Amino acid sequence: MYSSNMDYYRATSLNDAIKALAQNKGAKLLAGGHSLIPAMKLRVANPSMLVDIGRIKSLNGIKVTRKEVKIGALTTHATVAASAEPKEACPILAEAAALIGDPQVRNRGTIGGSLPNAAPASDYPTLITALDATLTATGPKGERQIQARKFFKDLFTTALKRDEILTSITFPAYGNMPGMGGAYLKHRHPASNYAVVGVAAMLGLEDGKVSRAVVVIGGATSNPVHAKSFESALAGMEPTEENIAAAADQMDIEATLGDSYASADYRAHLAKVLAKRALLLAAERAGG
Ligand SMILES: Cc1cc2nc3c(=O)[nH]c(=O)nc-3n(C[C@H](O)[C@H](O)[C@H](O)COP(=O)(O)OP(=O)(O)OC[C@H]3O[C@@H](n4cnc5c(N)ncnc54)[C@H](O)[C@@H]3O)c2cc1C
C-alpha cells in the first residue's frame, strides 16, 4: 500500500527541526525511516508532515570519556557496531548493534529512531534499561534528561513529548570498571532478525563474589523488564554455572506477548534460557 499524502520538510539544524515540529501538530520526525516508512505504508502512521532530521550533523557521532559513552541520536547501528572506542568502553553496545536486522537496516537505522519507536522486539530498549542509560530530549523549552527506567511507558509509547527530539543517549563506560562484564543475547525472528526475546545481562564481581547482577528481558512484555528475582538470588554468590542456573530457575517473568511464531509460554522459556547464558557470559567477561 502507498502512504497517505504528506508534506516534507528537510530541517537544517536542531532548532529548525524543533520549530517545524512545534508548528505542525501532525508532523513526525524522519531519521533512518526504517520503522516510520513501513508504518506509513501500512497506514498505521499517517503524519501530515515529515520533518527530516537526517542531515543535522550535530545529532551524529559518538563521544567516549573514561566515565561515559555519549551517542548522538542520528548515529546508525552500523557505526555503533563498528566503532572501536565504544566497543572498549561499553562492549555490550556494539554486541547488540551488530545483531540488529541486516546490513541495509544497520546502515540506515539510528539509535535515536529506535528508542522513541519503543517496539517490543527491538534491541536497544533492553540494552538501555540494563545499563540505566540517560536520554537527552530537546524541545521548545530546552533540554531535559530522562533515565532509561522512566522512558518506556507502554507498547510503542515513551516519555518523550510530541514536540521533543531525542538528541543523545549516555551510557556508563563499564568497560573501564574492573570486575564488570556484560552480554547481550537474542533469539532472532527468522524473517526480520528482530528479537523474539532479547536479554541484556551485567555482572559485577568483588573478591570473586557477585556484587551486582542485572538481567533485563525484552520481547516478552510490552517494555523491557528486570528479572528481579534472578538478580537478587545471585547477590553475594560465586558466579558458578550451578549458582547461575539455580538463580535462573527462580526467574518469574510473566510473558504477555505472543504470536503465531512464538507463544507467550515459549517466550517465557526463551527468556530463562537466554538469561542464564547471558549471565554466564557476563560473569566470564567480568573475570569470574
Ligand atoms: C527488515 C527490518 C529488520 C529490523 N530488524 C531489527 C532488529 O533486529 N532489531 C531492532 O532493534 N530493530 C530492527 N529494525 C528496526 C530498525 O532498527 C529501525 O532502524 C529503528 O527501529 C528505527 O530507526 P530509524 O532511524 O529508521 O527511525 P525512523 O523510522 O525514521 O523513525 C522511527 C520513529 O522514531 C521517531 N524518531 C526518529 N528519530 C527521532 C528522534 N531523534 N527523536 C524523537 N523521535 C524520533 C520517528 O518520528 C518515528 O516515529 C528492523 C527494521 C527493518 C525494516
Feature tags:
five-stranded antiparallel β-sheet; 27% strand; 288 residues; single chain; alpha+beta; binds flavin-adenine dinucleotide
Structure write-up:
The protein is an alpha+beta fold and 288 residues long. The strands form 4 sheets. It has a 5-stranded antiparallel sheet. The protein has a 4-stranded antiparallel sheet with strand order 11-12-13-14, sandwiched between helices. It has a 3-stranded parallel sheet with strand order 1-3-2, with helices on one face. β12 (195-206) and β13 (209-218) form a beta hairpin. It contains 11 helices and 14 strands. The chain binds flavin-adenine dinucleotide. Flavin-adenine dinucleotide (FAD) binds next to β2, α2, α6, α7 and β10.
Major β-sheet profile: 5 strands, antiparallel
Number of helical regions: 11
Distance between the termini: 53 Å
How many extended strands?
14
Helix content: 25-40%
Radius of gyration: 19 Å
H/E element sequence: EHEHEEEHHHHHHEEEEEEEEEHHH
Mean pLDDT: 96
Low-confidence segments: none
Strand content: 25-35%
Tell me which ligands are bound: flavin-adenine dinucleotide
Order of neighbouring strands in the sheet with most strands: 4-5-10-6-7
Q: Which structural class should the secondary elements be placed in?
A: alpha+beta
Q: What is the overall silhouette?
A: globular
Q: Gist?
A:
By secondary structure, this protein is an alpha+beta fold. It contains 11 helices and 14 strands.
SSE inventory with pairings:
Elements (H helix, E strand, L loop, with lengths): L6 E4 L3 H10 L3 E4 L5 H6 L7 E4 L9 E3 L3 E5 L4 H6 L1 H6 L1 H7 L5 H6 L2 H7 L6 H8 L2 E6 L2 E6 L4 E3 L2 E2 L6 E8 L7 E9 L6 E12 L2 E10 L6 E2 L1 H6 L7 H9 L14 H23 L2
Parallel strand pairs: 1-3, 2-3
Antiparallel strand pairs: 4-5, 5-10, 6-7, 6-10, 8-9, 11-12, 12-13, 13-14
Helix pairs in contact: 10-11
Flavin-adenine dinucleotide binds next to strand 2, helix 2, helix 6, helix 7 and strand 10.
